[in-house]
Design brief:
This protein is of the alpha+beta class. Helices cover 23% and strands 36% of the residues. The chain is rod-shaped. It comes from Snuella lapsa.
């Protein structure tokens, strides 16, 4: 996936380059930095690109509960709550 103007922006002012935007992978952020860092006339660089992963996977509650049962933890008093990709465990454990 290449960089597009709707994902990242480049601003140049008095030899200072500012990179802004959101990209799904860190290697893209690093590639954008490398692409402008050593250009003639560049005095400095601010890489403000943020990483925002596209995760469409949701976690199934039953899978988390099976993993707890296979562990050495007594899961009798542990409650599992799943919302998309966030798992919340509440209750008491013996460790």
């Amino acid at each position: 996936m290449g960089l597009t103007k709707d994902k990242a922006t480049v601003k140049l002012e008095n030899g200072w380059v500012s990179l802004d935007g959101e990209l799904p992978w860190n290697y893209q952020r690093e590639d954008a930095k490398k692409a402008v860092r050593y250009l003639s006339g560049v005095k400095g660089l601010s890489n403000n690109i943020k990483i925002k992963s596209k995760s469409n996977d949701s976690i199934e509650k039953s899978i988390v509960e099976k993993v707890l049962r296979r562990s050495s933890i007594d899961d009798s008093y542990i409650n599992v709550k799943v919302s998309g990709t966030t798992v919340t465990l509440s209750g008491k454990a013996n460790s």
